[in-house]
Amino acid sequence: MINLTPAEFRDALRQERLVAILRGPDPRAVAHAGRVLVECGVRILEVSLSSADALASLEELAQAFADSDALLGAGTVIAPGDAARCRDAGAVFAVTPALGPGLQESVDLGLPVLAGALTPTEVLAAYRAGASAVKVFPASVFGPGYLTALAAPFPDVPLVAVGGVAAADVRAYLDAGALAVGVASPLLGDAPAGGDLDALRSRASAFLSHVRVCRG
């Protein structure tokens, strides 16, 4: 397992600009979907703890990616002990939906953390608490313009737009100042439940095409 620093995590977000969020009822299907995404060129993946037997999926993917440049993290890190269990299962970064014990424990363990926030007060609190970057969630509630508004008073806070981001929305969020976007169902579809992997490959290609335009 690699040791990822907050600065390296931010650099990876800045370079890749896409985080795939894996969440589903079938741990083997979740892991299979993760492998397919990496084969397609997605390099940052998050396994949500709201998935069935999420730690098993994390362990399987951590082993699968041991010799790759993919970065594997754990999402929905909320309760005390979550961050430590995820680190032990192979996660190299953590993602939280909000402020709370998951953020603090991740910081204490030295895990880079993408911390969820929505309001300006929460964004500032998350960054001051040690978040490597701040997840603006749910981003679709206010849209790309809200990212622009947040970036104005917080130019030094790396913001990642998460929640309801479709492939066609990627460029608008990145142009609005988001360091990256995080995407669950618009990218994964039914794949984490054992669904169509060819459709997953097609969606991955669409998201990556939008990301590459913004990288250029």
Automatic annotation (TrEMBL):
Pfam family, one: Aldolase
Pathway field: Carbohydrate acid metabolism
TM ranges: none
Molecular function in Gene Ontology: lyase activity
Domain of life: Bacteria
Gene3D superfamilies reported in the protein's UniProt record: Aldolase class I
Record key words, sorted: Carbohydrate metabolism, Lyase
InterPro entries listed in its UniProt record: Aldlse_KDPG_KHG (IPR000887), Aldolase_TIM (IPR013785)
Similarity annotation: Belongs to the KHG/KDPG aldolase family.
Known partners and oligomeric status: Homotrimer.
Name of the protein in its database record: Bifunctional 4-hydroxy-2-oxoglutarate aldolase/2-dehydro-3-deoxy-phosphogluconate aldolase
Source organism phylogeny: Bacteria, Bacillati, Actinomycetota, Actinomycetes, Micrococcales
